[in-house]
Amino acid sequence: MSDPTSSELPNTAEAGQLSYAIFQLARAHRAHAAAMLRAMNLHPGQELLLMQLFDHDGRTQAELLERAGLDHSTVSKSLRRMQEAGLLTREPASHDRRVMVVHLTNAGRALQEPIADMWRTLEQVSVRDLTPDQIQAFTTCARIIEKSVRDHSRQSPGE
Asked: Which of 82, 106, 117, 157 is the S-S candidate for 87 at Cβ 3.0 to 4.6 Å?
């Protein structure tokens, strides 16, 4: 049986080696993070919403959507699940009943340290074979690539 983590590049991906490496990295990283989140009864992406609320409780649903970088349906579904799990509450804003304000419950606040621990552990696993200079260079390159992809995605389809 072949190793699914093999670095062997499919012929079709030869012209996109970096993109293929990013895809493989993102898939492996997300799978590891998802397993860690499952241990806290969370789904991937929910921790991102909680992290935003840890920094500023009482954000609107629209603010969470923008800050977490998730799509509308994912945020709505995640917030509903998290509310059902007793991690947060959602209520209409006093200034506009159409705007939903999200607040942590005590159970939601209690996840701050476990989530911080999870991210520390994930970081340690991710960088264990890298030097501090490699970590900095990779982080810088990753942010540049992310900006390039986001900027391109914002362009009109005809460009």
From this structure: 82
